[in-house]
Design a protein that fits this description.
about 300 residues; alpha+beta; 6-stranded antiparallel beta sheet; 3 helices; 12 strands
């Protein structure tokens, strides 16, 4: 083959190869554009607010009751609360209007914020009532009773009894009026700020209609105070039920606290009250004494 023919053949071959590469690149670019148009990019999945555990109607919510959960975009409802709009802590103190199962999305139709209309009614369980009782720094356990805690309600009042000699004497008595009662508010707050203790003037309790009557009478009889119960409930029944039936009464007299106070006369009409035992060396003797009723504040 002549040199001129060889050069022309080589040039033609190079042009053909370049054209093939250019055509292949163009076709690949067009295929990529077509694929991008045919398959749109999927939006990133969003997280919604859900119940972490079963929530009962009227339950006061805490941050540990809620969590964020990734939710499919195809079933995302406009009523769902999306992550990034508000922190979970913002829902502390809200109340569940309806029961919710674990993993169920939380909507503002299912919960109610403190201060909103119907909030207190949502806190109360069916058939229950809300009653406020006055408390002080001492009777309110120095501000360490919070909404959601369970307490016993105690009353301290004077009682007139006869001592061992048949003379009337005024005693001080303390009695447990109600047991295992749920606190739903302290003053007008239904949630504490970061567990901070605050001295309040009233505590709002959730009680039955009969128990509300008991509290109304007890508040006129003497001073009321609260006794905080453990989170571990032994399962004992309330001292007063909604029907007003028999209840187990527990009380303490001042004579049980101090041996210097004369004990009340027993049901049999005899008592060794008013007797002081005196020890001198190795000898023991008994001497009757008469207690004077306390007059201060009566």
């Amino acid at each position: 083959m002549r040199p001129r023919s060889l050069i022309l053949f080589t040039v033609a071959l190079a042009l053909a190869g370049g054209t093939t590469l250019i055509a292949r690149g163009w076709l690949a670019e067009q295929a990529a554009k077509a694929a991008a148009i045919a398959v749109p990019k999927q939006a990133p999945a969003k997280s919604v607010l859900v119940a972490r555990k079963p929530l009962a109607r009227g339950q006061i919510l805490k941050p540990r009751d809620l969590s964020w959960q990734v939710w499919p975009n195809g079933t995302l409802d406009r009523a769902y609360i999306l992550a990034g709009t508000r922190p979970i802590g913002a829902f502390a103190g809200w109340v569940a209007r309806t029961p919710m199962a674990p993993g169920e999305p939380v909507t503002e139709a299912k919960i109610v914020a403190p201060g909103n209309r119907g909030f207190l009614a949502a806190v109360l369980r069916p058939g229950m009532r809300a009653v406020s009782v006055p408390i002080t720094v001492t009777s309110g356990i120095s501000g360490f009773v919070f909404p959601g805690d369970r307490v016993d309600l105690l009353i301290t009042y004077p009682v007139r009894l006869k001592n061992g000699h048949g003379h009337p004497i005024v005693h001080k008595a303390a009695e447990t009026v109600l047991s295992d009662v749920r606190v739903i508010a302290i003053d007008q707050k239904l949630v504490s700020k970061d567990g901070e203790a605050t001295v309040a003037h009233t505590a709002t309790l959730e009680v039955t209609p009969k128990q509300s009557e008991i509290i109304a009478v007890a508040s006129q009889m003497g001073n009321l105070s609260l006794s905080l119960r453990s989170l571990v409930n032994p399962g004992d029944q309330q001292l007063a039920d909604s029907t007003g039936g028999n209840r187990q009464v527990t009380y303490t007299l001042d004579s049980e606290i101090s041996p210097l106070i004369s004990k009340p006369l027993s049901s049999k009409g005899n008592s060794d009250d008013g007797i002081v035992t005196i020890l001198r060396g190795g000898q023991q003797s008994a001497q009757p004494v008469r207690s004077q009723p306390a007059s201060r504040g009566l």
